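User: Predict the full complex structure for these chains.
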Amino acid sequence: MMTRVVHVDIAHAPYDILIGRDLLSQAEKISGLLPQSRVAIVTNTTIAPLYLAGLVESLQAQGIQCQQIILPDGEKYKTWESLNLIMDALLTERAERKTTLIALGGGVIGDMTGFAAAIYQRGVPFIQIPTTLLAQVDSSVGGKTAINHPLGKNMIGAFYQPRLVLADLDSLSTLPDREFSAGMAEVIKYGLIDDPDFLLWLEDNIDGIMAREEQLLAEAIERCCQNKARIVAADEKETGQRALLNLGHTFGHAIEAGLGYGAWLHGEAVAAGMVLAAYASQAIGHLSAQDVERVIVLLQKARLPVVSPALGGERYKALMAQDKKVDAGRIKFILLRQLGEAYIGELPESAIDAALLAGCEAAR
Amino acid sequence: MMTRVVHVDIAHAPYDILIGRDLLSQAEKISGLLPQSRVAIVTNTTIAPLYLAGLVESLQAQGIQCQQIILPDGEKYKTWESLNLIMDALLTERAERKTTLIALGGGVIGDMTGFAAAIYQRGVPFIQIPTTLLAQVDSSVGGKTAINHPLGKNMIGAFYQPRLVLADLDSLSTLPDREFSAGMAEVIKYGLIDDPDFLLWLEDNIDGIMAREEQLLAEAIERCCQNKARIVAADEKETGQRALLNLGHTFGHAIEAGLGYGAWLHGEAVAAGMVLAAYASQAIGHLSAQDVERVIVLLQKARLPVVSPALGGERYKALMAQDKKVDAGRIKFILLRQLGEAYIGELPESAIDAALLAGCEAAR
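Assistant: Here is the predicted structure of the two-chain assembly.
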């Protein structure tokens, strides 16, 4: 299989995303980018036994010194404390300003390692090796890094771009079904936001994708990365259109926070959140019932939850008011004008209520 | 007194430094820059009773909503824990992405508030109101923000530029003598690095400056800010010449860490560190004994320590090896080719030993 390349054209820090097979053993793709023959690889207890030794061996064969930092696995560890473990390890080993941090893992490892790279000694180089579908199509691209705070998800972080993203399809072979589905939520998101052709392609190919047919997977990941690269290059710091990428995330973050981080996977919450966003878009007259049903059916075929938990309307609103997309006290929602065309807008309270009534468990 | 303006010409984020009297009551200088009529002022228990009410009153008169966050005073509080107090307060009050953080205080408040602004919701606007001489001439300009880690000073931080710096001379009237002297260490530093005319001017006017004569102070602060603005605009991320601003800091940080943060003020450690750098520059044949004596005399007239504590050579070297200015295990020193001309270089161990022998307490 040919390695596909997506270029992210951010003016001050352009970089490539490589999508292909057996990339972890091709350390020469990494070594040319390093300012110093030294890296610190951050991973977790799940990924380490699967892929760490292979990556280290391949890097060492290129003469690169590898520090290994292994964190516990899970969204609930995306905290100050874990970040401090990385800082302690880097300082203890005297990692330098030219030492490159490599994130080997899913979205949590990528977000935390990226943030660690942004703030260690005021910034060191950083490479993403996403091992989950969600990280490959979304979180590893675009430079959003963060940790969670008890009062809100991703509330503390930085915009900090990687020098390279290596999306190795082989690493998806060990991905549990539930996490694969969670990644599909973000894949479907790109179709809904502004790529109606991709949405149709997904509807046509969803069964093959769920069977993890390799060519279909490579195609889906490449199209997601192209979409994300285009949006991020136009609006790195999310002053405008980049916010569209948060479709389903305002509701989704409320679900995650309301249930406690880690109860639902991020992608699961985004899936149910996109259904709520679709119902809300229907409530204000943009989508038809058939449109909403199309969204639900596609998500169901990706084995994702489409019914949100019954947290209660007041709790949803309180949690959403803590979202980052709030301006002068008003919550900004990502809504659908039609399938394949999202926009940023506000919602009357009645539409929020209608969406929660239609999309939450207690109502069904 | 006319307000002086120094422009910092950083391509992606240019801003002004205003130097003058009674600036704290001129909130119209701030309000025009705010993306939202809302600020969070971070200050400490020493500064709050002196200047916070006046600033808040002046901002509120412009219709600006002010959150007040008051931290304990001192370098020993420049920690994760204090940073978390800021995050907790911002999240509890639901500060938004357009809420501007204002640092009202010295270097510690400025560094921590700037770092908080860099990472809260991935970055919010930020204004510096430095109330100490050290912060006005050095730390508030140039966008270096950080907190300390038990294994090293300023090890965790970001490059993050303020939108405005207000250096109010009135706030220096309440500055304790010891802190005023500490600020003078950074003032003298600019003369030593690359402004021999300013060095001569300082030698001519040191008595009037130490008497805090207003016109002399304004002149000194403006020249320091011009020097710093020029260096920072040319090298924001310290890939080259900006490192010259660290003259005395590699030795100085070792002194601070070795004695425990807070035992000596930062400026005091820099003063003694500059003397060590001068001795080292003498040891490798650049400075004469008379040159070193000129440095010592000027620092003494500024009532600064010129003799370093007897930590022992091995301890100094171990502490310096943890400095950020280390590349492939080699410590980069800022040295003097002559007075008014600094450069970045390495030192043979014999020169480090000679400098410590000449400049440390046990040797005298």
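The mean pLDDT of chain B is 94.
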